[in-house]
Design goal:
The chain is mainly alpha-helical. The chain is 76% helix and 0% strand. The relative contact order is 0.02. Keywords: Coiled coil, Membrane, Transmembrane, Transmembrane helix.
């Protein structure tokens, strides 16, 4: 069926039409017949027909010639006429390109419009150039998508650019860059997943912790929002841990967390607040501790005064020991322990008076563990030793053999000789004290040995005075020690110590005057050991220095 303007597709271009030779001949024949009929009707006769026949023949030949010329030049004429549809498609394609509407499926994208031109005219240069521009724009959009890490969009734009530009160095380079970026992105995603898992598990710091993993990503990509957000979450978790530690009274742990938080993010806004909370918590804890220590000391002292010295957790000793664990420098707790030790020594002496040697030994050992090593403990030890020896003598008393009697005579002779020469307690094993004790070990009731021990303190006093008068404080000290060992509660012992200390102090000043500072300081040291409370010590020490 012949198309009419009504049913012809709207996008089909109308070409100028010049007709055909047959149509022209038909038209000429019809016109000639019509005119012949008219003339015949008007004039009649055949002569008219013959005159007009030649005219119409030449007219027909002219018309045929014009028709043939139009037919053979119609394509040339067509190119000279304006092609409005192609121009419109190209203009719309350029407009879509300017609006960056590169591709689509609705027929209004630059790619679709330029391709429509090529369908109508495959060699159209404007359409080919337009499609090249579309490809370049797609490549530019692919680069932008890569920069934004939108890899699927980058692939779509790259595929479109490859279809339009048909390869090239730029496309190959971009494809390699995209592949490398996707590989890095996969690695980054794996690290971020590990970091998220560590954060969820509460492993914030250290190797494999959330902080180090997020920082690893941020170091490689400072603009990575997931890594930055992850570091913020780690900081918030550390801040919460700090608050929990402060609330639980774990102030050292809280201080550690604050340091870790400041190292992770020095400008984290909660750090000043957390430090303030920690400072207040420490102040409150110190006040509470001071109050608790005071109450503990008072309770220990009350137990001590009640005679509850030791033996269980509620005794004075246990209370003072616990206080010193919390506050090693607590003076009242230390004094309390010394008082407990003193009470144990008193109990030990009472046990010795009742011949409970083993009980006394345990009490004295306990007192010594508490730090009591003073003269009272030493005297109690001597008392214990004597009691134990006496007990051994009584338990093992037998008939003394002639050999033992001979040994006793030798020991007594040696003991008296040592007593005369002043070797009262030194040298050990060969002094008067040890010789008399050796006799009593054989014969616990030997009168000469007992008498010799009784004479020993008086002999020590005599020798002390002699050595002190001779300005021999070192030898005088030996005799003073002999007196203290043989008679711990001897009258005037403190005064003798003061005199001996003064002799050492005089010696110190003299040695300094003689230009021998080493001897001077040694003498000062001896004075301080013998009589620590001597009022001259500080003055002499100042002079020496």
């Amino acid at each position: 069926m012949t198309e009419t303007p009504r049913n012809r597709p709207s996008h089909t271009r109308e070409e100028p039409r010049f007709g055909s030779i047959d149509a022209a001949q038909d038209a000429v024949s019809q016109r000639a017949v019509m005119r012949a009929d008219v003339r015949t009707t008007r004039h009649g006769g055949s002569s008219s027909t013959r005159r007009g026949g030649g005219f119409w023949l030449w007219l027909l030949i002219g018309i045929v010639a014009v028709a043939a010329l139009g037919y053979f030049n119609q394509e040339k004429l067509r190119r000279l006429l304006p092609n409005t549809e192609l121009n419109d498609l190209i203009a719309r394609g350029n407009q879509a390109l300017a609006q960056n509407k590169l591709s689509g499926t609705h027929g209004d994208s630059a790619r679709e419009l330029f391709q429509s031109v090529r369908v109508l005219e495959p060699d159209n240069e404007q359409a080919r150039a337009g499609l090249d521009q579309v490809g370049l724009h797609m490549l530019a959009q692919a680069r932008e998508a890569l920069q934004n890490k939108d890899y699927p969009a980058a692939h779509i734009m790259l595929d479109g650019a490859q279809e339009l530009l048909a390869g090239g160095a730029e496309l190959e380079k971009f494809q390699a860059d995209l592949h490398a970026a996707e590989s890095r992105g996969s690695q980054t995603e794996a690290v971020l997943q590990k970091a998220d898992a560590a954060l969820a598990a509460g492993k914030l710091l250290g190797a494999g912790g959330a902080a180090s993993l997020y920082q690893q990503v941020a170091s490689a990509d400072a603009g990575n929002a997931l890594a930055q957000n992850g570091l913020k979450k780690v900081a918030a978790a550390l801040a919460n841990q700090t608050r929990d530690a402060i609330a639980a009274g774990k102030l050292d742990l809280a201080n550690q967390h604050i340091g870790e938080l400041a190292q992770l993010n020095a400008s984290y806004p909660d750090v000043p607040e957390l430090r303030g909370q920690l400072a207040k918590a420490r102040s409150d804890a110190q006040a509470d501790q001071t109050a608790a220590l005071t109450q503990g000391v008072e309770r220990g002292e009350a137990e001590l005064h009640a005679g509850h010295f030791s033996g269980d957790d509620g005794a004075a000793e246990a209370i003072f020991q616990d206080l010193l664990k919390r506050d090693p420098a607590n003076a009242r707790a230390k004094a309390g322990l010394r008082a407990v030790a003193q009470a144990l020594i008193v109990q030990a002496n009472a046990a010795l008076d009742d011949n409970h040697v083993d009980v006394a030994d345990k009490l004295l050992s306990h007192a010594e563990k508490l730090g009591n090593t003073g003269a009272e403990l030493q005297a109690a030890r001597n008392h214990l030793r004597e009691a134990r020896e006496q007990l051994d003598i009584e338990n093992q008393r037998t008939q003394i053999s002639p050999e033992q009697q001979n040994r006793i005579r030798q020991l007594l002779l040696q003991a008296n000789r040592a007593l005369a020469t002043g070797n009262l307690i030194v040298p050990p094993g060969d002094c008067a004290f040890d010789k008399f004790r050796a006799v009593l070990a054989i014969d616990g009731n030997n009168a000469q040995a007992l008498d010799g021990l009784k004479r020993l303190p008086q002999r020590a006093r005599e020798l002390f005075e002699r050595e002190l008068h001779s300005n021999q404080p070192g030898k005088a000290r030996i005799q003073l020690d002999a007196l203290a060992d043989s008679e711990p509660d001897a009258a005037g012992l403190s005064a003798m110590r003061r005199r001996l200390a003064n002799a050492y102090l005089d010696q110190a000043e003299q040695r300094m005057a003689d230009g021998v500072p080493t001897d001077a300081f040694r003498a000062l040291k001896n004075a301080r050991e013998i009589d620590p409370q001597n009022p001259r010590i500080a003055d002499v020490d100042q002079k020496l220095r």
